[in-house]
Known about the structure:
The complex is a heterodimer of chains A (347) and B (741).
Chain A: H1 8-11, H2 16-29, E1 33-35, H3 49-52, E2 61-70, E3 86-95, H4 101-111, E4 121-125, E5 128-130, E6 135-144, E7 147-158, E8 161-162, E9 168-173, H5 174-182, E10 191-194, E11 201-203, H6 204-222, H7 225-249, H8 255-267, H9 274-285, H10 288-307, H11 313-345
Parallel strand pairs in A: 1-2
Antiparallel strand pairs in A: 2-3, 3-9, 4-6, 5-6, 6-7, 7-8, 7-9, 10-11
Helix pairs in contact in A: 7-10, 7-11, 9-11, 10-11
Chain B: E1 2-10, H1 15-35, E2 39-50, E3 53-61, E4 68-76, H2 77-80, E5 81-82, E6 85-86, H3 88-96, H4 101-106, H5 111-114, H6 119-135, E7 142-148, E8 151-160, H7 165-179, E9 200-207, E10 210-211, E11 215-216, E12 219-220, E13 224-225, E14 237-238, H8 245-251, H9 258-273, E15 280-281, H10 285-292, E16 299-304, H11 314-324, E17 327-331, E18 337-345, H12 351-380, E19 395-397, E20 401-402, H13 403-423, H14 430-439, H15 447-451, H16 458-466, H17 471-478, H18 494-513, H19 527-541, H20 547-552, H21 560-581, H22 586-595, H23 600-613, H24 617-638, H25 659-680, H26 684-692, H27 695-704, H28 712-729
Antiparallel strand pairs in B: 1-3, 1-9, 2-3, 4-8, 5-6, 7-8, 9-10, 11-12, 13-14, 15-17, 16-18, 17-18, 19-20
Amino acid sequence: xxxxxxxxxxxxxxxxxxxxxxxxxxxxxxxxxxxxxxxxxxxxxxxxxxxxxxxxxxxxxxxxxxxxxxxxxxxxxxxxxxxxxxxxxxxxxxxxxxxxxxxxxxxxxxxxxxxxxxxxxxxxxxxxxxxxxxxxxxxxxxxxxxxxxxxxxxxxxxxxxxxxxxxxxxxxxxxxxxxxxxxxxxxxxxxxxxxxxxxxxxxxxxxxxxxxxxxxxxxxxxxxxxxxxxxxxxxxxxxxxxxxxxxxxxxxxxxxxxxxxxxxxxxxxxxxxxxxxxxxxxxxxxxxxxxxxxxxxxxxxxxxxxxxxxxxxxxxxxxxxxxxxxxxxxxxxxxxxxxxxxxxxxx
Amino acid sequence: xxxxxxxxxxxxxxxxxxxxxxxxxxxxxxxxxxxxxxxxxxxxxxxxxxxxxxxxxxxxxxxxxxxxxxxxxxxxxxxxxxxxxxxxxxxxxxxxxxxxxxxxxxxxxxxxxxxxxxxxxxxxxxxxxxxxxxxxxxxxxxxxxxxxxxxxxxxxxxxxxxxxxxxxxxxxxxxxxxxxxxxxxxxxxxxxxxxxxxxxxxxxxxxxxxxxxxxxxxxxxxxxxxxxxxxxxxxxxxxxxxxxxxxxxxxxxxxxxxxxxxxxxxxxxxxxxxxxxxxxxxxxxxxxxxxxxxxxxxxxxxxxxxxxxxxxxxxxxxxxxxxxxxxxxxxxxxxxxxxxxxxxxxxxxxxxxxxxxxxxxxxxxxxxxxxxxxxxxxxxxxxxxxxxxxxxxxxxxxxxxxxxxxxxxxxxxxxxxxxxxxxxxxxxxxxxxxxxxxxxxxxxxxxxxxxxxxxxxxxxxxxxxxxxxxxxxxxxxxxxxxxxxxxxxxxxxxxxxxxxxxxxxxxxxxxxxxxxxxxxxxxxxxxxxxxxxxxxxxxxxxxxxxxxxxxxxxxxxxxxxxxxxxxxxxxxxxxxxxxxxxxxxxxxxxxxxxxxxxxxxxxxxxxxxxxxxxxxxxxxxxxxxxxxxxxxxxxxxxxxxxxxxxxxxxxxxxxxxxxxxxxxxxxxxxxxxxxxxxxxxxxxxxxxxxxxxxxxxxxxxxxxxxxxxxxxxxxxxxxxxxxxxxxxxxxxxxxxxxxxx
Lengths: 347, 741
């Protein structure tokens, strides 16, 4: 910590919560809607429907949210200073990405007190892929003095579908950045908050260490494998039932059929038939989003089973394929829903 | 004469792709200028790149294309004109040649010029016409009649007036940029307009001072480029003339010349290392290339780490520094690591900045080393021997089962090979070998290998040593993946060599058995590399194993068809190795393997001997004669005189009539046992030299004796004689494969 400086940000490194607030502010000022973390277990901010589903379709998106991300196999009982079962991402999605998105991103680093001229910054190739989601993109890991602080991705495909327009995704690793700013060697020593009156510090360890320890114990030792499998089976069955119902009710139109319908509509002075109207209403209220939540449940259970060492080689490939089918199926259903029902009701 | 500059500004290009793209764009631009007749004879080409740009500068570009002529053949003469009037076909052709109807009617169709001439003089006249037209600055398209073997046609010598470079180049330059190959593309504009490596953000296209209106990906070229992202900031800088390009960028904190950047990085590495007495940075060309392509304005900072970490194996430390952090290792005069590292920065920081940056890099490396140490300690809690069962949950291949299954198969093969070697007097520590094979894959379950996959095998070896499993076991595991590349060394111990062979034989056989053999350029499981490694180990060690031994070790349930494929695959790999790795001439290789190639060491010795003597005139004559013998025998078969593969019948010495055939026979009889004796002792060179002494007799024989005479007994006896000579002296190499120098 520098003793003399004119800039207030350099006086004192940001606490963990200040870091989050600053970044949220920064992106809010640039037109992002600040969403809250998705209230379910996800492995990465990308899996939140605010990213995974919103990047589909043509509607513009500018959204930012913090997302705790759980990766059971990464747990280290709180013993490793650099590894966490649950870490915190700040996720920004911009669709379409502005041309100066890299510059805006660099400004966000200034906003959290990183004086760029005093650091070594590189954009190094790092492409992102989530096979289970049929999703991939190209981009970089942003290296700050040798530390990977951000994953920067131009999404290309999601749910097996080409995206048009594409989205730009910026994912900040908040713990790493905080430890860098505060110059501490253990994530658990990161200062989370300082009481403005007493100056009393609360650390990341104070808030999270017990959770890391106990959840590691659960993930690696205590979780009941039989019950995990049972949960997985139940969630999967429910998700699959929803998807089946969806397909039964709204069979995917061949593009020729759709063109014909559009043609009909144009010929008959643009008025939709009452049957069309009913169908659209039914489509709009179909719980595709719930089906996606069930996918997230399955994905997390799979990760738990994996951490537990309970998935055999043959099972692994098969289960992943099943989850992929569900996730991709949901993404396709969502796209269909938005395309045929969404636009009309979007006010 | 003018100078051209073309720069494409992009968001950061992946470092691994830049060099090839720079070279390709340059080649494309130069080729474009040549094709468009815009390149002066005397010209200079420069190419530049940074993570954010590719640029080509060509000095010596014409402002206007050279005029050119080209010939167009039109409709048949009797179709083109009816009653002396041009038909619609003629008119259409004239339009294609760039003439109007009036011009066509006016044009003196130069009939007399070519009528009745033969093909050659016609060509001559046409060439004359072409060169005349090219020399005449006011030359215009001319029509003429061409008489060829196919008939008479209307033709045109078209005069193409050169267009201005500013008119020709813009679209073409955009086309060449768009055509550059990238290993991985993206799209970014709505409707997926173009695929390119990363979004294009600016273009510079200048012909001297003039902007060429190139447009690509919605970006319009100007004379503005961008400097260093951070140090120069957001404002573009103007390039007035192509020759200013490097200077303007240098002022904006970008060194666009790759060679210069590389040189500066090396100098800076040297300079920073001087702070550590007696130390040097560990040379690493690949890493120098990477950091050169990751930076626009490089500098180097020296950092250090706690010497405590030196207790971790060097392999781990170097992997962390090089592969994960792109840092250079620092070593002392003996090549041992010093607790320092060098990071190449994409900036020249001020003094306070240097300290901050050094501190940052040290912090990251410390965390990485801490992780490695943590993993090392964690891994020791479960010794390798306890990990064998864990392999049951590590997939080898989804159709082939787990690494545990593979280990069981490897054990059987290794055991068989060890048995064969023992029989042949090679000392193998069988228990160390089998222990090594059993544990070879267990490091796949360790945290350290999960973190640093490139260290598989090496980590296993280090752990085996740390866990007191003995040096032989440790070495065998450590070296199991070596040689990964053909240049790499082979395992130093016999146990390691056998382990390496067994593991690869198993992989290759298993993959072949489920139809995953390499095809064409596709070899996803790197089976060719695996086979190359086996060949290299066998060739360099001289282990007395022949190729069929390798297959003997393979499980019996491999189908016959697969076995055939395997045999052909190994044969092909061995020939590749002889030719491409050992540099034997292809005909020498063919001659050697045509005899047999099962024993690789032996085949190499024969190839060496043949290479040494093949230059001699005598051997060349023998080769020619043997080729002739083969032809005679083949023709005899084709004519039904001999059945294929049928023996010629025994030679009857009493039937030998001509002195020349008698001489050949007696000389061959004398020589054959001598040669055979030398061959048995693998004194191939001496044997070949002996064979060469047969030459005068062979020459004389073919000079004086006719083999295919009408008299059946005589003819068959002569066929038997040459067949015998061929057979007796073709056991080292099939000389008929040799190509005359």
